[in-house]
Design goal:
Elements: H1 4-15, H2 18-27, E1 32-33, H3 34-41, H4 45-57, E2 61-63, E3 72-75, H5 77-87, H6 104-113, H7 127-138, E4 146-147, H8 149-157, H9 163-172, E5 177-178, E6 185-186, H10 218-228, H11 231-242, H12 247-254, H13 258-270, E7 274-277, E8 284-287, H14 290-300, H15 313-320, H16 336-346, H17 358-366, H18 372-381, E9 385-387, E10 394-396
Antiparallel strand pairs: 1-3, 2-3, 4-6, 5-6, 7-8, 9-10
């Protein structure tokens, strides 16, 4: 694998879990102890410790100083920003194949449930085993060929007398398609990832937590990270980042079986990471950059800097000497008059009438310069920001920036 592959895998594994995404979402708002997180998420403290260890190992979370008997944890936003900017870049996607036999589980299930003549002793009740059986049965149908319902039933009867249940399951998991009137059936060209039946609403389940940013839905993020945590799919995505390819080309170049490649492509298609294009020579697949780039942009997004045109001309002249094109300060001025111009510019990132935690203040200031504590003290000393005695809350002070 390339040098970036272990980092990619750690990152995706760390976030391909619903509870860890919720922890990230909570820590994005403020630092919290393991005890606080356990109470908020209604899980055991040992479980929280395990998840925090995984997030710390991935470089996404770090412990702060001791707070009583427990130490609080904070989200390393700079690490997330940096990773998001490079993880999905075309040049950093892994360009390797993993020698993994993804058919081994399917073969084991078929051995456990099949008689010597190839028929099924019973239809598996467990979903994963049922899917393995259905994938095996679906291969009895030729892609692109149409079948009548009678013909489908004849094929299915070789495996089990309850052909109707098998037929419905194949349709439900999109391993077979059928016409609206039910007169024709066919096998899709690429085997899709089976659709998961909708889970019943849980009366005690809390609403999904926001993740790093409030606009990012947890289910969208979790699905994305779960798709790319698989090294085989990472290798396929990396290959398609260079050039589009057919299933057969991918299988030959990456050393994977065509059926396995087809399933991985279907999963990537379902996540919006891959697009298919029908050509006379066969279907070609390419990387759909729109979805991952949009997600990367949302992960790495920083608040917009105030517009330079909104400050006085005299301040603009000072700021132009210190600001980069991205709106960050190369350095903070030592001269008090110039620092006042910087503070008048920076304080526009805060909303009147709103209270902020120290962590939120630091995150806002990190947009401008890494020395957030220095900027925060300057804003408080100059009266641009006020704070409570214990420093837990901040808000805009009486001093306001010039229009």
């Amino acid at each position: 694998m390339t040098d970036t592959s272990p980092e990619l895998t750690r990152f995706f594994k760390a976030l391909a879990d619903g509870t860890r995404l919720k922890i990230v979402g909570l820590l994005a708002r403020e630092s919290l102890t393991g005890e606080q997180l356990a109470a908020m998420l209604a899980v055991k403290a040992a479980t929280i410790s395990h998840h925090l260890a995984r997030l710390t190992e991935a470089g996404l979370v770090e412990a702060e100083g001791q707070r009583g008997r427990e130490k609080p944890y904070r989200l390393r936003l700079d690490a997330i920003h940096g990773l998001a900017q490079v993880l999905l870049a075309q040049e950093t996607l892994p360009q390797t194949a993993a020698d993994v036999d993804v058919e081994a589980f399917d073969r084991k299930v078929m051995r456990d449930f099949s008689r010597r003549d190839g028929s099924l002793r019973e239809i598996p009740a467990q979903q994963k085993k049922l899917q393995a059986v259905l994938r095996h049965i679906a291969r009895q149908f030729e892609p692109g060929r149409e079948y009548t319902e009678k013909h489908v039933n004849l094929v299915l009867a070789r495996f089990h007398p309850d052909s109707a249940s098998l037929r419905r399951a194949l349709i439900s998991y999109r391993l077979l398609a059928r016409a609206a009137d039910g007169g024709k059936y066919w096998r899709p060209t690429a085997e899709p990832a089976p659709a998961q039946p909708a889970a019943p609403a849980h009366p005690d389940r809390r609403p999904a937590m926001d993740t790093v940013q409030e606009a990012m839905a947890q289910d969208e993020l979790e699905k994305f990270f779960q798709v790319l945590v698989d090294t085989n799919r990472l290798a396929i995505a990396g290959r398609l980042a260079r050039q589009s390819a057919t299933t057969e080309q991918l299988a030959a170049e990456l050393g994977q079986k065509p059926a396995a490649v087809a399933r991985h492509l279907a999963t990537l298609l379902g996540a919006g990471l891959v697009k298919a294009e029908a050509r006379p020579t066969g279907t070609r697949y390419g990387l759909a950059w729109e979805a991952p780039r949009a997600l990367a942009a949302r992960l790495s997004a920083r608040p917009e800097a105030p517009k330079l045109e909104s400050v006085e001309a005299s301040d603009q002249q000072v700021l132009k000497n210190y600001l980069t094109a991205e709106g960050r300060f190369r350095e903070l001025p030592l001269q008090a008059k110039k620092m006042q111009a910087v503070l008048r510019y920076v304080v526009r990132a805060f909303e009147p009438g709103r209270e902020y935690t120290e962590k939120q203040v630091n995150e806002a200031l990190a947009r401008f310069h890494n020395d957030t504590s220095g900027l925060r003290r300057e804003l408080v000393d100059a009266g641009f920001l006020r704070r409570t005695t214990n420093g837990s809350r901040y808000w805009l002070g009486a001093v306001t920036p010039a229009p």
